[in-house]
Design goal:
3-stranded antiparallel β-sheet; single chain; mainly alpha; 304 residues; 2 domains; DNA polymerase, domain 1; hpI Integrase, Chain A
Length: 304
């Protein structure tokens, strides 16, 4: 029956060779599991047998290491598909896997760096007074000060920035073409003002007549690419003695620091450009962890 199901996946479902090979491994292991329980036919398999297999996947055994949640989920999906196929083919009259659910993938909490680390990063923008240093500082201040994605930052034009006192902000275009206006703080606003007035005109002149409306420019006067912006960040991180820094970590830090400061999660949702508040709520888990740490360190009845 297993061979028939694998043939069905290959022919009817058109699974890729690598996926099919993974399913075959998972199902051969499942069949061995059933044999160890004395189940010689699919008709005798119970829900408890399938659940026990899930436990084996999670804990490992003498022959196999424990699987990560995503691999265990794939194996359970293969098992459930096999039992549906067996039921449809009339081999047995029940599906013992129907109510068995794959393990949930662990949600990795976003990593945030401290405010001191952000300041170290920005201070390491480059040699003082150099045009590209002014650009680098403006870019880093904007990434942290607005929570912009790297693609949103390099996609900005000069006209997207408003530095007037009454409307200081930046217009970002996010996923799905959704646009939002995010306020600019004093540090980001000042860094952008210095870059636009003192550095960008000279950098743009390197383009030899090829003008671009892009806000952030590379050394040749063209628009700064995602890779170029990544390099700016990595060099500054190295200079500042910071490891594992990415544009997304600055975005995480922006959100986490706002929530730590008491900003409502729905306001942070709007600033980040999330379509759903559910996406933003993962950041609240970070701040709850921080509250627990502060409580444990400060409350007299919390100390061990």
């Amino acid at each position: 029956m297993l061979s028939s199901y694998l043939a069905h996946l290959a022919v009817e479902r058109g699974l890729a060779a690598n996926t099919l090979a993974s399913y075959r491994r998972d199902l051969l292991r499942y069949v061995e599991h059933l044999k160890s329980l004395g189940r010689l036919s699919f008709g005798g398999v119970t829900e408890a047998d399938v659940t026990a297999f899930l436990t084996v996947l999670a804990e490992g055994d003498d022959k196999h290491r424990a699987l990560v949640a995503s691999s265990a989920a794939r194996a359970v999906s293969a098992v459930r598909g096999l039992h549906r196929f067996v039921l449809r083919e009339g081999v047995c009259d029940h599906d013992p896997s129907r109510r068995v659910r794959p393990p949930r993938r662990l949600r990795r909490l976003p990593k945030a760096i401290s405010v001191d680390e952000v300041e170290r990063l920005i201070a390491a923008s480059g040699p003082e007074g150099a045009p590209l240093t002014m650009r680098n500082r403006a870019l880093l201040e904007l990434l942290y000060g607005t929570g912009a994605r790297i693609s949103e930052a390099v996609g900005l034009t000069v006209d997207d920035v408003d530095l007037s006192p009454e409307g200081r902000g930046v217009r970002l275009r996010g996923k799905g073409g959704r646009a939002r206006t995010v306020p600019l703080g004093r540090f980001a606003g000042e860094a952008l003002g210095v870059y636009l007035s003192r550095a960008r005109p000279g950098i743009a002149a390197q383009g030899k007549g090829r003008s671009t409306p892009g806000l952030f420019l590379n050394a040749r006067g063209g628009r700064l690419t995602r890779q170029g912006a990544w390099e700016v960040l990595q060099i500054a991180a190295e200079r500042g003695g910071l490891a594992g820094i990415s544009p997304h970590i600055l975005r995480h830090s922006f959100a986490t620091h706002l929530l730590d400061g008491g900003v409502d999660v729905r306001v942070v949702q709007e600033l980040l450009g999330h379509a759903s508040v559910t996406t933003t709520q993962v950041y609240t888990l970070v701040t709850v962890d921080k509250l627990r740490e502060v409580y444990a360190a400060a409350h007299p009845r919390a100390r061990h």
